[in-house]
Amino acid sequence: MPDSSTRLCVAITADFDTRYLGRLREIADVRLGGWGVTGSIPPESELIEFLAGADVLVAAWEPITESVLAATSLRYIASVRGGPGGNIDLAAATRHSIPVTGTLGREAIPVAEFAFGLMIGLLRYIPLTSHLLRTGDLASFDPPPPGDIGWGMDPGDPWLRYRGTDLAGLCLGLVGLGAVGRLVAARARAFEMEVVAYDPYASPMDGVESVSLDELMRTSDIVSVHARYSPDTHHLVGAEQIAAMKPSAILINTARPHLVDRDALLAALTGQRIAGAALDVHGKEPMNPDDPFLALNNVICTPHIAGSSAGVTANQSLQVVENIERFARGEPPHHLVNTGA
Asked: Model-level pTM?
């Protein structure tokens, strides 16, 4: 920990909300560079040069390797990512006695809101009908009648063909009741939904019934996946679980792709054994243009953007500034990810 009387030098290579830069500059000299300024990851030699003399690094994407740590005088690394181990050698940081912190729940609100966007979009046919209008594939009168009388009420016309489902009264099953899952549950109340959850590690939540995974899959109208990924949760929602879903049910995944058995889900969708799915995460990213999920009208695919919103940068920046202030005072920062440092 630093001497509280010395002024820190903080190097920032992450995207950072300007509202919090002034607060940080009250206690530290700040330099900006790397991906947060240029939008590209610099070579290791350039990164080492940028970090010369810095006490603290605020990082996003740059690989922070043993070589980088050995060549710099860093004493603390604040990652803006929830999982800093993706680009930071945590074992090497621990060997160098450098604490590393992440940002807890920085994307929780946008992911929770995005999940509802997918639910509503799928159940009310919003992306599909928008696409069909643009391509001219929606049923319409030929030739069009005079005046403004609507599409009509024939079975092939939109009012009957794309009759959607209300969220109110549906059972929402949450696979995972962590930061995102709890926000989804809270918002579901406003939609007058029943909420059940499977998470053996979560504390109880008012208004949410804890059930087994088998019961959740069998009884839910919407299954929304918000669990953490680990070897133990690989294909947590597998062929057996998908087979138990109602024929009218849909599955939403905004968490990690390998929590769900992709092949089993595809088979259930193409065989019309479940009603639909909405996926923001995929086994291969970017997706191949010929990915079979893209050809299905009962599927929404988005390019891993659930956690992307302007509010994320403000959230992560505030958490980082508060942690650097704690570090400057000689106090342990919050959300430490390498406890041996």
From this structure: 0.87
